[in-house]
Design a protein that fits this description.
mainly alpha; 2 domains; two-stranded antiparallel sheet; 11 helices; 2 strands; cell membrane; Putative ABC transporter permease protein; ECF_transporter_component
Length: 258
Protein backbone atom coordinates (compact mmCIF):
# COMPACT_ATOMS: atom_id res chain seq x y z
CA UNK A 1 0.00 0.00 0.00
CA UNK A 2 2.89 2.28 0.58
CA UNK A 3 3.30 3.12 4.21
CA UNK A 4 4.39 6.64 3.47
CA UNK A 5 1.45 7.49 1.23
CA UNK A 6 -0.57 10.54 2.32
CA UNK A 7 -3.62 11.91 0.53
CA UNK A 8 -3.65 15.56 -0.65
CA UNK A 9 -6.04 16.69 2.10
CA UNK A 10 -3.84 15.45 4.95
CA UNK A 11 -2.20 18.20 7.01
CA UNK A 12 1.07 16.91 8.42
CA UNK A 13 1.27 18.54 11.84
CA UNK A 14 1.24 17.24 15.40
CA UNK A 15 -1.89 17.63 17.50
CA UNK A 16 -4.12 15.71 19.88
CA UNK A 17 -6.60 15.09 17.09
CA UNK A 18 -3.88 13.71 14.80
CA UNK A 19 -2.77 11.31 17.53
CA UNK A 20 -6.31 10.07 18.25
CA UNK A 21 -7.11 6.52 17.04
CA UNK A 22 -8.53 6.54 13.53
CA UNK A 23 -11.46 4.22 14.24
CA UNK A 24 -12.72 6.51 17.00
CA UNK A 25 -12.41 9.60 14.81
CA UNK A 26 -14.35 7.83 12.06
CA UNK A 27 -17.19 6.93 14.44
CA UNK A 28 -17.17 10.49 15.78
CA UNK A 29 -17.47 11.85 12.23
CA UNK A 30 -20.40 9.59 11.33
CA UNK A 31 -22.30 10.34 14.55
CA UNK A 32 -21.70 14.09 14.17
CA UNK A 33 -22.99 14.11 10.58
CA UNK A 34 -26.07 12.07 11.50
CA UNK A 35 -26.81 14.48 14.36
CA UNK A 36 -26.57 17.46 12.00
CA UNK A 37 -28.78 15.82 9.38
CA UNK A 38 -31.39 14.80 11.97
CA UNK A 39 -31.76 18.33 13.36
CA UNK A 40 -34.90 20.20 12.24
CA UNK A 41 -34.06 22.70 9.52
CA UNK A 42 -36.72 25.12 10.82
CA UNK A 43 -34.50 25.92 13.82
CA UNK A 44 -31.38 28.05 13.53
CA UNK A 45 -29.62 28.05 16.91
CA UNK A 46 -28.60 24.34 16.87
CA UNK A 47 -26.40 24.95 13.83
CA UNK A 48 -24.49 27.61 15.71
CA UNK A 49 -23.78 24.93 18.29
CA UNK A 50 -22.57 22.50 15.61
CA UNK A 51 -20.35 25.21 14.10
CA UNK A 52 -18.87 25.92 17.55
CA UNK A 53 -18.03 22.20 17.95
CA UNK A 54 -16.25 22.19 14.57
CA UNK A 55 -14.31 25.35 15.44
CA UNK A 56 -13.12 23.85 18.72
CA UNK A 57 -11.93 20.70 16.93
CA UNK A 58 -10.12 22.85 14.36
CA UNK A 59 -8.36 24.64 17.20
CA UNK A 60 -7.31 21.37 18.84
CA UNK A 61 -6.23 19.92 15.46
CA UNK A 62 -4.24 23.05 14.54
CA UNK A 63 -6.17 23.38 11.28
CA UNK A 64 -6.38 27.08 10.32
CA UNK A 65 -9.59 28.37 8.77
CA UNK A 66 -7.67 29.87 5.83
CA UNK A 67 -6.44 26.35 4.98
CA UNK A 68 -9.80 24.61 5.12
CA UNK A 69 -12.14 27.22 3.59
CA UNK A 70 -10.76 26.99 0.02
CA UNK A 71 -11.16 23.21 0.15
CA UNK A 72 -14.82 23.59 1.03
CA UNK A 73 -15.55 24.95 -2.45
CA UNK A 74 -16.40 21.37 -3.39
CA UNK A 75 -19.93 22.07 -2.16
CA UNK A 76 -20.52 24.98 -4.56
CA UNK A 77 -22.72 22.92 -6.97
CA UNK A 78 -25.05 22.07 -4.08
CA UNK A 79 -25.20 25.73 -3.05
CA UNK A 80 -26.20 26.68 -6.61
CA UNK A 81 -28.99 24.09 -6.47
CA UNK A 82 -30.13 25.43 -3.11
CA UNK A 83 -30.33 28.99 -4.43
CA UNK A 84 -32.85 27.87 -7.08
CA UNK A 85 -35.20 26.12 -4.64
CA UNK A 86 -36.97 29.23 -3.27
CA UNK A 87 -37.97 30.11 -6.84
CA UNK A 88 -39.01 26.60 -7.90
CA UNK A 89 -40.93 25.33 -4.85
CA UNK A 90 -44.65 25.91 -4.41
CA UNK A 91 -46.80 26.50 -1.35
CA UNK A 92 -46.93 29.60 0.80
CA UNK A 93 -44.83 32.46 -0.49
CA UNK A 94 -43.22 35.52 1.04
CA UNK A 95 -41.85 38.72 -0.52
CA UNK A 96 -38.13 39.33 0.01
CA UNK A 97 -36.84 42.62 -1.45
CA UNK A 98 -39.75 42.60 -3.86
CA UNK A 99 -39.16 39.00 -4.98
CA UNK A 100 -41.75 36.31 -4.29
CA UNK A 101 -40.09 33.28 -2.73
CA UNK A 102 -41.43 29.97 -1.49
CA UNK A 103 -41.27 29.51 2.29
CA UNK A 104 -40.75 25.76 1.88
CA UNK A 105 -38.04 26.47 -0.69
CA UNK A 106 -36.26 28.86 1.68
CA UNK A 107 -36.21 26.26 4.44
CA UNK A 108 -35.03 23.60 1.99
CA UNK A 109 -32.25 25.86 0.70
CA UNK A 110 -31.17 26.72 4.26
CA UNK A 111 -31.12 23.04 5.20
CA UNK A 112 -29.02 22.03 2.19
CA UNK A 113 -26.50 24.83 2.66
CA UNK A 114 -26.00 24.62 6.42
CA UNK A 115 -26.07 20.83 6.71
CA UNK A 116 -23.88 20.39 3.65
CA UNK A 117 -21.38 22.96 4.91
CA UNK A 118 -21.12 21.34 8.34
CA UNK A 119 -20.82 17.87 6.80
CA UNK A 120 -18.06 18.97 4.43
CA UNK A 121 -16.25 20.80 7.24
CA UNK A 122 -16.35 17.72 9.48
CA UNK A 123 -15.22 15.43 6.66
CA UNK A 124 -12.32 17.73 5.75
CA UNK A 125 -11.31 17.83 9.41
CA UNK A 126 -11.17 14.04 9.48
CA UNK A 127 -9.19 13.96 6.23
CA UNK A 128 -6.78 16.64 7.45
CA UNK A 129 -5.95 14.70 10.61
CA UNK A 130 -5.96 11.10 9.36
CA UNK A 131 -3.28 9.49 7.15
CA UNK A 132 -4.67 7.21 4.45
CA UNK A 133 -2.43 4.35 5.61
CA UNK A 134 -4.38 4.10 8.90
CA UNK A 135 -7.80 3.58 7.29
CA UNK A 136 -7.52 -0.18 6.49
CA UNK A 137 -6.95 -1.30 10.07
CA UNK A 138 -9.47 1.23 11.41
CA UNK A 139 -12.19 -0.10 9.11
CA UNK A 140 -11.33 -3.68 10.04
CA UNK A 141 -11.53 -2.84 13.75
CA UNK A 142 -15.00 -1.36 13.20
CA UNK A 143 -16.23 -4.59 11.64
CA UNK A 144 -16.42 -3.44 8.03
CA UNK A 145 -16.60 -6.53 5.77
CA UNK A 146 -13.13 -7.71 4.77
CA UNK A 147 -14.11 -7.68 1.09
CA UNK A 148 -15.04 -3.99 1.10
CA UNK A 149 -12.08 -2.68 3.10
CA UNK A 150 -9.29 -3.47 0.58
CA UNK A 151 -11.39 -2.12 -2.30
CA UNK A 152 -12.00 1.15 -0.50
CA UNK A 153 -8.39 1.56 0.53
CA UNK A 154 -7.04 0.71 -2.93
CA UNK A 155 -9.38 3.32 -4.40
CA UNK A 156 -7.90 5.96 -2.10
CA UNK A 157 -4.38 4.77 -2.85
CA UNK A 158 -4.65 4.89 -6.63
CA UNK A 159 -6.96 7.85 -7.27
CA UNK A 160 -3.93 10.20 -7.35
CA UNK A 161 -2.08 7.89 -9.72
CA UNK A 162 -5.04 7.72 -12.12
CA UNK A 163 -5.51 11.50 -11.98
CA UNK A 164 -1.86 12.00 -12.93
CA UNK A 165 -2.25 9.50 -15.78
CA UNK A 166 -5.29 11.38 -17.14
CA UNK A 167 -3.32 14.65 -17.04
CA UNK A 168 -0.43 13.05 -18.96
CA UNK A 169 -2.84 11.82 -21.63
CA UNK A 170 -4.37 15.29 -21.94
CA UNK A 171 -0.91 16.83 -22.38
CA UNK A 172 -0.04 14.20 -24.98
CA UNK A 173 -3.23 14.91 -26.96
CA UNK A 174 -2.67 18.66 -26.80
CA UNK A 175 0.93 18.23 -28.01
CA UNK A 176 -0.44 16.40 -31.06
CA UNK A 177 -2.81 19.21 -32.01
CA UNK A 178 -5.86 18.21 -30.00
CA UNK A 179 -8.27 20.97 -29.01
CA UNK A 180 -10.32 19.85 -25.98
CA UNK A 181 -13.09 22.35 -26.77
CA UNK A 182 -13.55 21.21 -30.37
CA UNK A 183 -16.58 18.96 -30.89
CA UNK A 184 -14.80 16.72 -33.41
CA UNK A 185 -12.34 15.71 -30.65
CA UNK A 186 -15.08 14.00 -28.64
CA UNK A 187 -14.05 10.63 -30.07
CA UNK A 188 -10.46 11.08 -28.89
CA UNK A 189 -11.69 12.00 -25.40
CA UNK A 190 -13.96 8.93 -25.31
CA UNK A 191 -11.10 6.68 -26.42
CA UNK A 192 -8.89 8.14 -23.69
CA UNK A 193 -11.54 7.45 -21.04
CA UNK A 194 -11.86 3.86 -22.26
CA UNK A 195 -8.10 3.46 -22.22
CA UNK A 196 -7.87 4.71 -18.63
CA UNK A 197 -10.63 2.29 -17.59
CA UNK A 198 -8.87 -0.69 -19.17
CA UNK A 199 -5.51 0.27 -17.68
CA UNK A 200 -7.12 0.65 -14.25
CA UNK A 201 -8.76 -2.78 -14.53
CA UNK A 202 -5.50 -4.42 -15.63
CA UNK A 203 -3.55 -2.62 -12.89
CA UNK A 204 -6.08 -3.82 -10.33
CA UNK A 205 -5.59 -7.42 -11.46
CA UNK A 206 -1.80 -7.12 -11.28
CA UNK A 207 -1.92 -5.57 -7.81
CA UNK A 208 -4.34 -8.25 -6.61
CA UNK A 209 -2.10 -11.05 -7.89
CA UNK A 210 0.95 -9.42 -6.31
CA UNK A 211 -0.83 -9.17 -2.95
CA UNK A 212 -2.04 -12.78 -3.11
CA UNK A 213 1.47 -14.00 -3.93
CA UNK A 214 2.67 -12.29 -0.74
CA UNK A 215 0.15 -14.11 1.43
CA UNK A 216 -2.68 -11.57 1.52
CA UNK A 217 -5.90 -13.25 2.72
CA UNK A 218 -8.28 -10.29 2.60
CA UNK A 219 -7.78 -9.20 6.22
CA UNK A 220 -5.73 -6.11 7.07
CA UNK A 221 -3.24 -7.11 9.81
CA UNK A 222 -2.62 -5.05 12.94
CA UNK A 223 0.87 -3.53 12.86
CA UNK A 224 1.15 -1.11 15.82
CA UNK A 225 3.98 1.38 15.44
CA UNK A 226 4.50 0.46 11.78
CA UNK A 227 1.39 1.09 9.71
CA UNK A 228 -1.15 2.43 12.17
CA UNK A 229 -1.82 3.63 15.70
CA UNK A 230 -2.44 1.20 18.59
CA UNK A 231 -5.96 0.02 19.31
CA UNK A 232 -8.05 2.66 21.10
CA UNK A 233 -8.47 2.42 24.85
CA UNK A 234 -11.71 3.08 26.75
CA UNK A 235 -10.39 6.48 27.84
CA UNK A 236 -9.63 7.43 24.24
CA UNK A 237 -13.11 6.38 23.11
CA UNK A 238 -14.64 8.54 25.83
CA UNK A 239 -12.49 11.59 25.10
CA UNK A 240 -12.51 11.54 21.29
CA UNK A 241 -16.27 10.97 21.07
CA UNK A 242 -17.01 14.13 23.10
CA UNK A 243 -17.70 16.27 19.96
CA UNK A 244 -20.14 13.64 18.68
CA UNK A 245 -21.85 13.42 22.07
CA UNK A 246 -22.15 17.20 22.18
CA UNK A 247 -23.70 17.18 18.69
CA UNK A 248 -26.23 14.51 19.74
CA UNK A 249 -27.14 16.59 22.81
CA UNK A 250 -27.70 19.67 20.60
CA UNK A 251 -29.87 17.68 18.17
CA UNK A 252 -31.90 16.07 20.96
CA UNK A 253 -32.45 19.46 22.62
CA UNK A 254 -33.60 20.93 19.31
CA UNK A 255 -36.16 18.14 18.88
CA UNK A 256 -37.41 18.53 22.46
CA UNK A 257 -38.03 22.25 21.89
CA UNK A 258 -39.49 21.88 18.39
Amino acid sequence: MGAGHAHPLYRDVTSRVHRAPTEVKLVCLVVFVFAVVATPREMFWPYLGFAAIVLVVWQLARVPIRWILPRMLIEVPFVVLAVLLPFAEGGRRVDVVGVSLSVAGLYAAWGIVVKGTLGVAASLTFAATTPARELPVALSRLGVPRTITPIFVMMLRYVDLLSAEVKRMQIARTARGDSPRALHQAKAVAVSIGSVFLRSYERGERVHLAMMSRGFTGAIPDMPGVATSPRATSAQWTLVLLPAVAAVVVAATAWSLA
